[in-house]
């Protein structure tokens, strides 16, 4: 897969799959999977570090995780999130951040929002030769301004604004667009109105692709169950049962056995 595959697959109505990936060992596994591309999302601040929002992700943190993923997934297209405020402190700071993530091993970056300065910056980054994925709807870096993690653009005026934003991101040169937590009708409208693929999370069935956080689809945290999530495994039980079995074997002295010991 490369940057051209995104548009090609949209044109062929072939849906695109993306999952988040934050570390070396899961990158190695996902490298052998069928999934199309990997997102080193700033959601790693919550999932890997226990923060309460993505506001806590920094360029340094993102860089370490991108490096680990790039070492593990040598055959996948890797997109990395530009973290909180990294695109709002002027061109030089933003370009330094882009450079760090690309040199860490990303093939593209993702930027949340469609404000004037973001659209200008995206144009500049694209002109500099770096592919940019946009992100509209629920943009978690703005969680405090949005008043929480909630479905966006339910009202007609907001929906129109989001649609206009999607068009301006396409115009700025984005190669794809994440649509997060918006009504399915709007997910459909945006996807039909732009030439670049939309990748949805909680944006209905009509987006050109879907993205989920790996740990969510693996069922690592049973307490996290938003409406849009489908769990494909029960990893919380799997991990607990495996480690409990290990504990029981150690205490019961059945691990290690002679075959597991050096003679
Ligand atoms: O950071 C992230 O994981 C994301 C996805 C939810 C799209 O931005």
Q: Helical element count?
A: 11
Q: Architecture of the largest domain in CATH? A: Alpha-Beta Barrel
Order of helices and strands: HEHEHHEHEHEHHEHEEHH
Q: What percent of residues are in strands? A: 5-15%
Helical content class: 40-55%
Q: List the strand order in the largest sheet.
A: 1-2-3-4-5-6-7-8
Low-confidence stretches: none
Mean pLDDT: 97
First and last CA, distance: 48 Å
Coarse shape:
globular
* Alpha carbon gyration radius: 20 Å
**The CATH topology of the largest domain, please?**
TIM Barrel
Based on secondary structure, the structural category is: alpha/beta
Count of DSSP E strands?
8
CATH class of the largest domain: Alpha Beta
Number of domains: 2
- Sheet with most strands: 8 strands, parallel, barrel
Q: What are the bound molecules? A: 3-methyl-2-oxobutanoic acid
The CATH fourth-level homologous superfamily of the largest domain: Phosphoenolpyruvate-binding domains
Summarize this, please?
The protein has 263 residues and is an alpha/beta fold. The chain is built from eleven helices and eight strands. The site of 3-methyl-2-oxobutanoic acid has 11 residues, from β6.
């Amino acid at each position: 897969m490369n940057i051209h595959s995104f548009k090609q697959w949209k044109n062929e109505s072939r849906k695109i799959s993306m999952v988040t990936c934050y570390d070396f060992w899961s990158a190695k596994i996902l490298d052998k999977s069928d999934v199309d591309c990997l997102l080193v999302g700033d959601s790693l601040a919550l999932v890997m570090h226990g923060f309460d929002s993505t506001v806590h992700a920094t360029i340094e943190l993102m860089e370490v995780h991108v490096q680990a993923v790039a070492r593990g997934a040598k055959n996948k297209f890797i997109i990395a999130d530009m973290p909180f405020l990294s695109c709002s402190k002027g061109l030089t700071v933003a370009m330094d951040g882009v450079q760090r993530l690309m040199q860490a091993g990303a093939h593209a970056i993702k930027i949340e929002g469609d404000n004037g300065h973001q659209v200008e910056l995206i144009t500049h980054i694209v002109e500099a030769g770096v592919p940019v994925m946009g992100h509209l709807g629920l943009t978690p870096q703005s969680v405090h301004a949005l008043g929480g993690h909630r479905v966006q653009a339910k009202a007609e005026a907001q929906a129109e604004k989001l649609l206009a934003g999607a068009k301006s991101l396409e115009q700025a040169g984005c190669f794809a667009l994440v649509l997060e937590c918006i009504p399915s009708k709007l997910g459909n409208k945006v996807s039909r109105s732009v030439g670049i693929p939309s990748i949805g999370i909680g944006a209905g069935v009509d987006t050109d692709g879907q993205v989920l956080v790996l740990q969510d689809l693996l069922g690592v945290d049973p307490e996290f169950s938003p409406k849009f999530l489908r769990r494909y495994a029960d990893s919380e039980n799997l991990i607990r049962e495996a480690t409990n079995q290990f504990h029981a074997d150690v205490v019961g002295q059945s691990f290690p056995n002679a075959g597991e010991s050096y003679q």
